[in-house]
Amino acid sequence: MEFVFHISAYDDPALDGETVRLLTQRLEARSREAVPGMWALTDKLNAYAAKGPGREKRRTRYRVYGVLLIALGIFVLVPGLTEPRTPVLIGTGIFAVLSGLLEFCLVRERKPAASPASCRKEAACLLEQRRSVDWSLPENRTELRFDETGLSVSAGKETETIPYGDMTAIFAEDCLWLLVYGAEKALLLQKKDLTVGEPEKFVPYLQEKIGKQG
Q1: In DSSP terms, which residues pair with 150 in a beta bridge?
Q2: What number of other Cβ atoms are within 10 A of residue 29's Cβ?
């Protein structure tokens, strides 16, 4: 089985929001690995809130959740800011504090927490770089081929190979996939650029390959 992408313009306005959400998914996944205890508590609180008491009790409940989340966020953020700084702990702490502050505003209606500013900034830079390239020019034409040996990236006369052992995660939105590999590298793939292979089989295929190499 193989999947082939031919990169085209990142011109869909929907990509802005989707890229932010993908990077937020990546940040949450990394923070869950770094501080699983905090996330276990957060998940329990969210599960309880989903089936908890009626509206008349929400104000007190949300305030309690807010205090707990802010306290947990500060507990994680302080060591993250201590030299040498730990980006995952900093991001997790900020995420928890923002979630806690949001709890105080959710007396009538629960809303998803805002994406961290770091994810919005990274998404803007990522898309700006890709939108600055004219992918239709011969010298910029890029092919990505996933097969049994890994990923081959062909750009002009150069070819780079990325083995599945270097890949760590794949995240999905409606129009995009975010493939994470190496220490901090990521590929932003548009589903419309998939020219060989079935889209619904791509993520399961990669998850299987990454799992076998893990």
Answers
A1: 147
A2: 14
Q: Can you state the percent helix, strand and coil of the chain, rounding each to 5?
A: 55, 20, 25
Helix (H, G, I), strand (E, B) or coil at 152: strand
Whether the CB-CB separation of 76 and 35 falls below 8 Å is answered with yes
Q: Is the pTM of this model over 0.85?
A: no
**CATH number of the structural domain spanning residue 193:** 2.30.29
Contact call for residues 162 and 145 (beta carbons, < 8 A):
no
End-of-domain residue from the set 99, 115, 131 = 115
Residues 138-182 pLDDT 10s: 999 999 999 999 999 998 788 999 999 999 999 999 999 999 998
Same domain, 127 and 175: yes
In this structure, which amino acid lies at residue 169? A
What does the pLDDT look like over 44-80, one tens digit per residue? 766 765 665 554 456 666 666 777 777 777 777 777 7
Type of residue at 43? D
Same domain, 83 and 158: no
Give the domain extent around 192: 3-13+122-213
The count of domains in the chain is 2
- Residues 83 and 153 reside in one and the same domain: no
